[in-house]
Write a structure and sequence with these properties.
By secondary structure, the chain is mainly alpha-helical. It is built from five helices and three strands. The protein has a three-stranded antiparallel β-sheet with strand order 1-2-3.
């Protein structure tokens, strides 16, 4: 996540009222408002705005950097060896992804979310060294 995305993510987290269950729509609106405020200081293209909105939302409400990988129908497997060591299998080849989690803690949060909602196994023993 680049500096602007991280800055917006932190702003949004600080604005979310945790005293009630915030809806996805409310979070998206806070993200959009933050992007608009930043674009008043430095212009942000529509494509970049959409990318920031998607990345920030996914980092707060979904599976963070895994969302785009999961949406890619050509990817048959995702292997994670650490916050910045994500590998994918695509077209029968294992390649290193450019995606990365912001921290080890964020990765652990995502792992716990996955394990809590599915009956999948988290394998920390088999690491890919590339």
């Amino acid at each position: 996540m680049d500096n602007l995305e991280e800055e917006i993510r932190i702003e949004v987290m600080n604005q979310i009222d945790l005293s009630y269950d915030v809806t996805d729509e409310e979070i998206l609106q806070i993200i959009k408002n933050s992007i608009i405020n930043h674009s008043k200081i430095k212009p942000i293209s529509l494509l970049e705005r959409q990318k920031i909105e998607s990345h920030v939302f996914n980092s707060l409400r979904k599976l963070d950097v895994l969302e785009d990988l999961l949406a890619d129908e050509e990817i048959t497997e995702i292997m994670i060896n650490g916050p910045d060591r994500i590998f994918i299998e695509k077209s029968g080849q294992v390649i290193r992804s450019n995606e990365r989690f912001s921290s080890e803690e964020k990765l652990n949060d995502i792992i716990q979310n996955i394990v809590a909602s599915t009956n999948k196994i988290v394998n920390e023993e088999r690491k890919i060294n590339r």
